[in-house]
Specification:
Layout (H helix, E strand, L loop, with lengths): L1 E9 L2 E5 L5 E6 L1 H4 L13 E7 L2 E7 L5 E5 L8 E6 L3 E7 L7 H13 L3 E7 L6 H13 L3 E4 L8 H8 L3 E5 L6 H8 L3 H14 L8 E4 L5 E4 L13 H4 L4 H4 L19 H7 L5 H13 L3
Parallel strand pairs: 3-5, 8-9, 8-11, 9-10, 11-13
Antiparallel strand pairs: 1-2, 1-4, 2-3, 4-5, 6-7, 12-13
Helix pairs in contact: 2-10, 5-6
Bound molecules: guanosine-5'-diphosphate and zinc ion.
Length: about 300
C-alpha cells in the first residue's frame, strides 16, 4: 500500500506520482466507482491510497482534501459544484496590462470563483512593459486595497519574473486567465517548453464544444507544480448563489453585520455600510459595480 498524488486522468486511468517521484497508472477500485454521479470522486490533485492487485495498481481510497477549486457546471444540475482540482495552494490570475486590455469585470469574476473555493488568489498583470507604471498601479490599486497580492510582470523586461518564479516553484499553483495575455510566455520563461505542454490540452478543449477534459498537474523542474485547468475556461457561465456573492468580495465581507438590515443586499437599502463605504471611497467603485453587475446576472 502506498500513497500518491493524482496528476491527471484519461479514460478511467489515473496517473499517480508516488513520493519517490515515480509515476504509475492505476484504476479505481470498484467500490469507488459505484454510486457516483460523475468523476468528481477522484480528481487531479487528490492524495490517494494505492495497492497492487491482480497485476494492476488500484486506487483504494482518497485522503481528505485540504482545498478544492470548484465551479458550478453550466446547464441542468448546475447547482452541484464540479471540482476542478484538489489540494492547490493558490490561483494565479493572469491579465495583460495591454493587448488585450485588462477587463476588470472578468478579473472580478475569477476572484469570486477563487473566493467561493476559499483559495488564495494572486493577480498577475503581465506585459507591464506596454503601460506606464502609474497606470499599472492604478489598475491594481483596488485589488491591493481589497487585500489581494498583486504582481506586475513582463517577459520582455524581466520585471517581476523572480517573484513569479518563487510562487510557481513552491507548492501547487493554478495559472489561468484570458487567452493572449502571455500565460505560455510566462511559463516558458520559467521553464523552456512548458507553455507548449500546457497549451496542448487547452487548445483541444477550445475546439470541441462541451468536451470535458480533466485538469492536469505538471511538475516543474524547480520543484513546484502548475495545474492546467481547461474547465476554468468558460468561467463566465458559472454561478454563485446571490446571497453568497457579497462574501466573495473581501472588502464587502469585512463590513458584514454593519448594515441596518441583516439581509441587506447592498443595492438600495437605507443604512447600508457598503454603499456608505463606496461613497466615502473606502471601497473602490469599480469593484462595487462588479458586485452589482454580477448580482444582476445571477439567477439563483
Ligand atoms: P497566452 O494565450 O496567455 O498563453 O499568451 P501567449 O504566451 O501566447 O502570448 C500572447 C502574445 O503576447 C505573444 O505574441 C507574446 O509574445 C506576447 N507577450 C507575452 N508576454 C509579453 C510581455 O510581457 N510583454 C509583451 N510586450 N508581450 C508579451
Ligand atoms: Zn448593505
Amino acid at each position: 500500500m502506498a500513497t500518491g498524488t493524482v496528476l491527471g486522468t484519461v479514460g478511467g486511468v489515473y496517473s499517480i506520482e508516488l513520493p519517490s517521484g515515480e509515476t504509475i497508472e492505476a484504476v479505481l477500485r470498484g467500490r469507488l466507482k459505484r454510486n457516483k454521479r460523475s468523476d468528481d470522486r477522484v480528481v487531479t490533485g487528490d492524495d490517494v491510497r494505492v495497492s497492487f492487485q491482480d497485476g494492476q495498481h488500484v486506487i483504494d481510497g482518497v485522503e481528505p482534501r485540504r482545498s478544492q477549486l470548484e465551479r458550478r457546471a453550466p446547464g441542468p444540475g448546475r447547482h452541484r459544484p464540479k471540482i476542478i482540482v484538489a489540494n492547490v495552494q493558490r490561483v494565479l490570475l493572469v491579465f495583460a496590462a495591454a493587448r488585450p486590455e485588462p477587463n476588470a469585470r472578468t478579473l472580478d469574476r475569477f476572484l469570486v470563483l477563487t473566493e467561493s473555493s476559499e483559495l488564495d488568489a494572486v493577480i498577475i498583470l503581465n506585459k507591464v512593459d506596454l503601460l506606464p507604471a502609474e497606470q499599472v498601479s492604478a489598475f491594481l490599486a483596488p485589488y491591493r486595497a481589497a487585500g489581494y497580492r498583486t504582481l506586475g510582470t513582463s517577459v520582455v523586461s524581466g520585471e517581476g519574473m523572480s517573484e513569479l518564479r518563487a510562487l510557481l516553484c513552491t507548492g501547487r499553483s493554478v495559472l489561468t486567465g484570458p487567452s493572449g495575455v502571455g500565460k505560455s510566455s510566462l511559463l516558458n520563461s520559467i521553464q523552456p517548453g512548458l507553455g507548449l505542454r500546457i497549451g496542448e490540452v487547452s487548445e483541444a478543449v477550445g475546439k470541441g464544444k462541451h468536451t470535458t477534459v480533466a485538469s492536469r498537474l505538471i511538475r516543474l523542474e524547480c520543484g513546484g507544480y502548475v495545474a492546467d485547468t481547461p474547465g476554468l475556461r468558460e468561467v463566465g457561465m458559472w454561478e454563485v448563489e446571490r446571497a453568497h456573492l457579497a462574501e466573495c468580495f473581501p472588502e464587502l465581507r469585512a463590513l458584514r453585520g454593519q448594515c441596518r438590515f441583516d439581509d441587506c443586499s447592498h443595492t438600495h437599502e437605507p443604512g447600508c455600510a457598503v454603499r456608505d463605504a463606496v461613497a466615502a471611497g473606502r471601497i473602490a467603485a469599480p469593484r462595487y459595480e462588479s458586485y452589482f453587475a454580477l448580482r444582476e446576472e445571477e439567477t439563483a
